Amino acid sequence: MVSTVPPAFIERYAPISGNATKFAEYLSKPLPRSFRVNTIKNNSVDVVERLENDGFNISLVPWYKDAFISNSDKRLGTTLEHFLGEIYIQELTSMLPPIFLKDEIKNANSILDACAAPGSKATQIAALMNNKGTLISNDLKYQRIKALRGNIDRLGVLNTVVTNYDFRSFPNLKFDVILLDAPCSSEGMCRKDPSFFNRWNERRYSYFSSIQKTLIAKAFSMLNEGGTLLYSTCTFSPEENEAIVNTLLDNKSAELIPLSLPNLISSNGITEWNGTHYSSELSKSLRIWPHQNNTDGFFISKIIKNA
């Protein structure tokens, strides 16, 4: 159970959440226990059958064939399947960025996960690459790098090089596909952090947005012409989402690709916030609210670099 949700938090997002009452209700609910089958090691049919034989009650996720929910109190992290790297315990919205890059990944010669630790999306991308090609997985913090390497080894990923840079000073290489899952205020993850609202304040938005603007400009500069940048955060704040992408659109030759996924309930990105107007292109972005699919909150923009 999360800490009490401040009324000011609900009021802040009431105009854009679609249903403020449901939004508030779901913020106080525990998250489902979700996981992804690692197709590098095994297939979903075999893994789920073994878990069910071990007493787990497993539900399918309607929008991703390798994602599942455990409805049991038993811990997935103690299973042989987890130990062997056949499953990755991962929140459902965290699986979305690689899904939305699936087609580009198939045709890319070079892929970068700019802020990769602890490896949920990097290992998923590697699986979508069939463990072939080259994926660079970078992260700033050495302690997180250790977790990233541990997960890469456990899941049997062989096509990934791990780097330890502040992405703002990453070497100026060129990539066909870049995933920038940017550091953020993490509001969307409040359901699994009981203390989150004890420290919530709006001053954090300006701190993170200044970093995000630098990171997205750096990532875009490293794209090959025609390349794809996917920008994502696990926060609700437009200051860290639409405003960041809007800055890129204002200054670079970039365009957004509309996003949707069958059976996934989502909202469009917003084009106005507190009197500030953004490009109409931002409506092509995707927002996930907790009450739509019983998940974390999430934001995604898919950006193409024009010549």
Distance between the termini: 49 Å
Q: Can you tell me the CATH superfamily of the domain at 94-305?
A: Vaccinia Virus protein VP39
Category from helices, strands and their pairing: alpha/beta
Helix-strand sequence: HHEHEEHEHHEHEHEEHEHEEEEEHE
Characterization of this structure:
By secondary structure, the protein is of the alpha/beta class. It has a domain at 94-305: Vaccinia Virus protein VP39 (Rossmann fold, 3-Layer(aba) Sandwich). It is built from 11 helices and 15 strands. Strands 5, 6, 7, 8, 9, 10, 11, 14 and 15 form a 9-stranded mixed β-sheet that branches. The protein has a 4-stranded antiparallel β-sheet with strand order 2-3-1-4. A two-stranded antiparallel ribbon has the order 12-13. α9 (203-221) links the parallel β8 (175-181) and β9 (223-233). The chain is globular. The chain starts with 6 loop residues before the first helix and ends with a strand. The relative contact order is 0.15.
